[in-house]
Protein: Solute:Na+ symporter, SSS family
Amino acid sequence: MEITNTPALLWFVGAYGVIMILMGIYFSRKISNSEDFILAGKGLGTVVLTGTLLATWTGSGSISGGETSMAFSYGIIPALLMMIPTLVGIAILYLIAPKIRAFGKYTVSGILEEKYGQTARMIASIIIILAFVGIVSYQMTGLGFILNLTTGISVETGTIIGAVMIIFLATIGGLRSVAPTDALSAFLAIAALFITLPTIIVIAGGWDTITSNVPAEHLTATSTLSNAQLLGFLLPSLFLLLGDQNMYQRLASSSGDKSSKKAQIGWLIGMILISPSISFIAFASRSMFPDIDPGMALMATTVVMPTAVGGILLAAATAFIVTTGNSYLLSAATNVTYDIVGKYIKKDASDRELLKMTKLFIVILGVFAYILISFFPTVLEVQMYAYTVYGAGFTPALLAVFFWKRVNVAGGVSSMVAGVLTTLIWEIPLAKPFELNSVIVALPVAVVVLIVVTLITPNSKKTTKL
Structure:
């Protein structure tokens, strides 16, 4: 089956885009200081917090990469396994959420400074910027896929439009406007996926027809992947989530520990509903559209469904992509402003000046994100790179702050440097030997360096604020 452009779907995408812009403008009027812009005034209730956690985590990484690309390229079981790291990560964050709120920092780098000092804060900021710009870049491409489907314009042109929209929404209102639009996006997406799943299975000819049209290995546990290769796809998302500044900022933005705990339970339940639905829809798409880009698998189904159903799904996908993009862009810009410029260059900047700088860096980093995507052949490739840079270079040292009192400055800083350098060397000059994602090597290196260096160096007198 071939994909035919369906311009009528553009009305749904356009309508939702207008709603998001109007909501962004409305909530931006409530911003009076940096805390409003970055942490939504620490007033997010359970429903909005649940929605923003869901929408931020389920962006183009799931819609175009993650479960979608795994189901299309390797089969249904590897795709379903992609949900496990997320559920484990949410459970661990549930345990440490009160400590995250207690720190009261705008950035995770600020938490690391409490334990490891200013050097760690600078290194962490660089890691976050490298990773988050990569994550933003494939959100832009995801929107390019959507506009290609609906209008026939090239993915490249659609990516430019996506970049402009993501940058604009991140700039006007920060988390104060992003969080409510996230919540609306999340609940719309759950409804759309539940309507789409049974519909696409029927249109594809039923489960037996679907399984007969895909390669036989797509029905096995690991498909053509070795166990090590499969693990290389599962670990990055777990270690990104465990240290994800976006999630930490959202938990810190809650109105209290009770709201935070309820929202995390809602997030867990939401992912149990969303992730398998995406996997099965993309798997059905593999049966119907075997020759398309894997990143388009979910969105391709919209052109064969009733217009209303396809339009709602496409609008929901657009929402997930845009909200994830502007969230990670906002978070990265916050690091540049508070951890680099405000810390070392313009130490006497007023709150208003810091707010203006954050908005400026949103635009600058957004342009970098657009440039970066041209260096990666698929969404899944850049997703694994970005997740590993963050997960291996950042998360072991961060988790040690919460779980290992003995860890010291030398161990934390060495671990971050080792994780990032190993990732970059494995991905760029070595070009992924044995077709293994870099996390298989970089994460163990980061953990071993953390433990060994800590144990062979004097214990730091620096205490952690818990």
